[in-house]
Amino acid sequence: xxxxxxxxxxxxxxxxxxxxxxxxxxxxxxxxxxxxxxxxxxxxxxxxxxxxxxxxxxxxxxxxxxxxxxxxxxxxxxxxxxxxxxxxxxxxxxxxxxxxxxxxxxxxxxxxxxxxxxxxxxxxxxxxxxxxxxxxxxxxxxxxxxxxxxxxxxxxxxxxxxxxxxxxxxxxxxxxxxxxxxxxxxxxxxxxxxxxxxxxxxxxxxxxxxxxxxxxxxxxxxxxxxxxxxxxxxxxxxxxxxxxxxxxxxxxxxxxxxxxxxxxxxxxxxxxxxxxxxxxxxxxxxxxxxxxxxxxxxxxxxxxxxxxxxxxxxxxxxxxxxxxxxxxxxxxxxxxxxxxxxxxxxxxxxxxxxxxxxxxxxxxxxxxxxxxxxxxxx
Length: 378
Ligand code: NAD
Ligand code: ZN
Ligand code: ZN
Hints:
- By secondary structure, this protein is of the alpha/beta class.
- It folds into two domains: 2-160 and 325-377, Quinone Oxidoreductase, Chain A, domain 1, CATH 3.90.180.10; 162-321, Rossmann fold, CATH 3.40.50.
- Helices cover 25% and strands 24% of the residues.
- The strands form four sheets. Strands 3, 4, 5, 8, 9, 16 and 17 form a seven-stranded mixed beta sheet that branches. A six-stranded parallel beta sheet has the order 12-11-10-13-14-15, sandwiched between helices. Strands 1-2 form a two-stranded antiparallel sheet.
- The chain starts with a strand and ends with a strand.
- The model has no long low-confidence stretch (mean pLDDT 97).
- One zinc ion is lined by residues 38, 40, 59-60, 85, 160-161.
């Protein structure tokens, strides 16, 4: 089968690889209909996450079930399914408590909890930027979708970024009527903003410096804040009449940069501590790494982020972090799409054939104007 394979820094290729197959009785194989390129894939693409050459990429997958193992009885051949990026066993302590992103059994790497398709340090699993994908523990992991091809561009956001954006608002403790600040208008930040709107936010400020992305934020009824126009905290304070916000979402990650492009891993956390009210919450879904050898400072290289913890403590704020447990949210979010309340497909900018993946990666990585979210159609 054809698949997108990691070849080294800023290099991917579409190659023939071994067919995905049922390896365990509880596996299914799906024929991939859509697989998205994610901001997280760029960490590997840019050579900032150690990944083996030859790895098949792709953790945002959906498709139609092609084959099931003898131990699969809920999922049937022909079902249209969304595949959560978390690969979870369904029976460990974390899975039992609903935290599939910290499954204790599926990642064989010592000290690591939580596994994913096609990702560095997330276990030996191939990704779905390919014609077919092997899904372990299929009965537990797969979400069945209405048959056909309706809402494909919305449903394809269910495998990662819609639940992740929603999770950011949950970690932040968002309540109806709140003012919210979302830092980062990438796909994750935009869907955190969309989630806050659906949940009845009073006002949503979305911070970035990419004008195309800020325009999308405006389209979904949020207030764009361009940090290249000046301190985003001051801009939000002014726009909110000095009130600041009740809660905030971090959707940028450790590569947060200033308007010159220089990286400051603590920058967005500091901004959030300043702009969120005392006793407010901060949800961090942007990725921070335990080790970042190419970080801008000695601290950053050790994964240490010197943010304004003193003010955070003094303000009695709360912070939640980590990979999103997709299964906690994906059923409800599917139903919000079907009922027309949610439409996360608004951010799709490009739909490419699998063969065009190298162009997709290169342009998305350069954050070329208008390259917001790239879907691959194997
Ligand atoms: P992205 O790179 O497309 O978007 C990040 C955005 O942040 C960019 O538009 C960039 O211009 C902006 N930005 C940079 N510095 C900023 C600053 N100082 N202030 C405000 N905005 C700034 O990535 P994405 O796909 O939207 O993902 C965002 C983050 O979420 C990444 O770190 C990704 O790895 C992570 N992620 C986490 C999970 C999870 O489960 N926790 C899942 C998916 C993605
Ligand atoms: Zn993703
Ligand atoms: Zn588990």
